[in-house]
Predict the 3D structure of the following.
Amino acid sequence: MNTATFDDLLCRTLDDGRLSRAEGDALRAVLDEHELDAHTSALLRSRVFAAAAERLVDPRDRKLLDWCEELCKVIDRPDAPTAAAKRTALAAFSPGEDCRRAILEHIDRARRSLDACVFTITDNRNSDALEAAHRRGVAVRVISDNDKAHDLGSDIERLARAGVPTAVDRTPHHMHHKFAVADGRLLLTGSYNWTRSAAKDNEENVVVTDDPPLVRAFDRHFGSLWKRLAARG
């Protein structure tokens, strides 16, 4: 991996002392180009601490930063025996409330960002949760199908009025995805549309996983769709 590109991005985000969403996306894009092993990940973490240390003036602050780095090494052990056990892997099926419950829990878990790409959203309970996440400061974005966005009961315009950034595809074809990525680390996907009929009548499924390659693939695809669709207005 070319660490010069990584270091350049670190310097940019250090200029104002905060990691913006755009800067985080740029860093993730660089990291996603490589299969990082434990050694490389540890090397990059050390460069983060080294870059921060260069900006410190008070020696006591440097000592505190060293303390943080050593603790991270202890916590981030790649051979930790409980690492596999902590994986998230869940499957839910409808009819019934399991799929809807999984969606609500997924939205409620989001702390930084929630990107939802769903063919049709008419279940107010899911839309209520999206609005609540938006109000608590989560960066929520929603993509839906343009035809379904104008269906009776669609919540896309309601979400837009509430200030949630939304986009639709505006093509004769369908944006038929049903997935959501929370905080860039947790994926929910499956056949289930976010509608009451999907819970009440249909044979549907939802899968939730934190498998990194899968999450990255869906995260990248959402970003690509958003860049293309949101630009059309």
